Amino acid sequence: MAWHCNGVTNRDMVLKLKESGILTTIRAEAAMLAVDRAKYCHEADPYLDRPRKIGYNVTISAPHMHAYALSMLSDQLFDGAKALDVGSGSGYLSACMAFMVGPRGRVIGIEHIPDLIEVATRNVREDCPHFLQDGRLKFVVGDGRLGHTADGPYDAIHVGAAAEILPQKLIDQLAPGGRLICPVVAIEGFQRFQDLLQVDKKADGSYTKQKLMQVSYVPLTDPNTQLRN
């Protein structure tokens, strides 16, 4: 059912994601109901199940990918948790994560293009201003490949662009029991594709990796390369 969860309203979109078995937790569902995608996607028909351009050669992901991510990270986005959203873009997923961690939690959205930080902040201010006012959500300018050590370690890390290799610095910033979701480029012969990887850190600091599915994301790169593409 992925790519077929189009909605006329935000609630309609969320219900279709739930009925399709993509949105699998009550808390993830509540977050997507509370955060209105139309405030972050400023094109016609914002509830279509497909990625949409938001400028600067980046997109807001399709709703089903946000539903997958929030469902996979639900246990780590508990009340009071700390989370990092790498490539926060429009601010939509950061806001959903902020809803899930509650006022005692902290979500950092990191982007390397300052103008996108301004866009995300404006979007959240128009939709869920209390997330900014109570300090649970903050956007910072930086190289997401390096993470953001100042507010770590993190219980949940989401990467919204495809890395050439799994960023070790992000794994290092996971808290014990934390989970990282990251698309990573894979090459087999002449074929180049992307695997969505799940990394879980154990109490002793070791970690496991699991391939979840093949995906298609914009590259996780530096600002100049992004703007040239």
UniProtKB/TrEMBL annotation:
The keyword Repressor does not apply. It holds the Pfam family PCMT. Keywords: Cytoplasm, Methyltransferase, S-adenosyl-L-methionine, Transferase. It is found in: Cytoplasm. Gene3D superfamilies: Vaccinia Virus protein VP39. It is an enzyme of class 2 (transferase). It comes from the Eukaryota. Its EC number is 2.1.1.77. The keyword Transferase applies. NCBIfam families: pimt. Belongs to the methyltransferase superfamily. L-isoaspartyl/D-aspartyl protein methyltransferase family. This is protein-L-isoaspartate(D-aspartate) O-methyltransferase.
